[in-house]
Amino acid sequence: MTIQDGYGVVICTCPNDEYAEKLACSLIEHKLAACVQITPIKSFYEWKGEICRDEERLLLIKTKAALYNNLEDYITKGHPYEVPEIVMVPIARGFEKYLTWIDSSCSINIEQERS
């Protein structure tokens, strides 16, 4: 099985609850994700020569690996960050019934219009 045939968890950060929840619902509605979990985090990073500390929302997006490019394009179209964090971690193994549920919840044939 190649990465394209498998599954992944896409990690994405957002500036607040409102944007994170809107994005999560939209990804599910567009069949780009089976499940999105949101949790508050504190991020520390260097940006344009300054050390930054921000309260953010971390999204854990469960999806098919083959949908990554569509999902990345969709997120970047409306994301408020200049360089959003969008990283996929492949799922090496998983409960078969859960992976089957991801299959039934996600669709590769989607329109990429932002609602």
How are the elements arranged and paired?
Layout: E1 7-14, H1 17-29, E2 35-47, E3 50-64, H2 68-78, E4 86-91, H3 96-105
Antiparallel strand pairs: 1-3, 1-4, 2-3
Explain the overall architecture.
With 115 residues, this protein is an alpha+beta fold. The protein has one domain (3-105): 2-Layer Sandwich (Alpha-Beta Plaits), CATH 3.30.70.120. It is 30% helix and 37% strand. It is built from 3 helices and 4 strands, in the order βαββαβα. The protein has helices at 17-29, 68-78, 96-105, and strands spanning 7-14, 35-47, 50-64, 86-91. It has a 4-stranded antiparallel sheet. The N and C termini lie far apart (34 Å). Mean pLDDT is 91; it is low at 110-115.
**Domains, number:** 1
Q: Which spans of ≥5 residues are poorly predicted at pLDDT below 50?
A: 110-115
The total count of strands amounts to: 4
Number of helices in the DSSP assignment: 3
Notable features of this structure?
about 120 residues; alpha+beta; Alpha-Beta Plaits; four-stranded antiparallel sheet; 3 helices; 4 strands; about 30% helix; elongated; disordered C terminus
Short description:
The protein has 3 helices and 4 strands.
